Amino acid sequence: MSKFNERATQLDRFLASVRHPLKFRLLTFWKLPASFFSGVRVDSLLPEACVCSVPHRWITQNPFRSAYFASLSMAAEMSTGLLAMAHLYESKPSVSMLVVRLEADFFKKATERIFFTCADGETFYEAVNGTLSDGLPRTVRAKATGRNSSGEVAAVFFFTWSLKAKAKK
Question: How far is CA 134 from CA 7, 9, 84, in A?
Fold first, then answer.
């Protein structure tokens, strides 16, 4: 975690709030109801990587009895977005983030809980530091790999995030 020491206090506060089961469930219920009702959850969150998962159940399935791609994309996006949020949390000036591109490849039918791992924390850290230092927007292409409980790759998502420091008022 040595690379992340500059904003360690803010990062620790963000990680603690996401890891708190009640706070995070209330947040998803209020701000992300589709992920709340689909059962998307955060399994692990560190400055370097995040793992989110989505179960296979009635509300997340498609007519072919596998997980609907939108359900999979919610968990994949959350695994990348939480890393971005962790590194821009309480930044001065604040930094806005937006998905500007999505790419996905599907390899295996998702008939059980799928775990999405994004290990691009360092890339987000550098992009946030860059936009904070010079005010220029940055983009990050983050990869989220979804695996079943056997470790087989079910899907790979790429989310391109735009990060931009907001103008000082």
Answer: 17, 23, 18
Give the residue numbers spanning the domain of 104: 2-165
Query: Which three-class secondary structure state does DSSP give residue 27?
Result: helix
Query: Cα–Cα distance between 98 and 109 in angstroms, integer?
Result: 29
Alpha-carbon distance of 55 to 65, in angstroms, equals: 13
Q: How many domains does the chain have?
A: 1
- CATH code for the domain of 21: 3.10.129.10
pLDDT single digits (tens) 53-72: 999 999 888 899 899 999 99
Selection from 73, 162, 158, 150 nearest residue 118 by Cα: 158
The reply to whether omega before 93 is within 30° of 0 (cis) is yes
Distance from C-alpha of 126 to C-alpha of 63, rounded to nearest angstrom: 42
Confidence of residue 1 (pLDDT cuts 50, 70, 90): very low
Token pair of 41 as six digits: 């959850």
Task: Give pLDDT tens digits for 6-40.
Answer: 666 777 788 888 888 788 888 888 888 898 899 99
Mean pLDDT of 141-165: 96
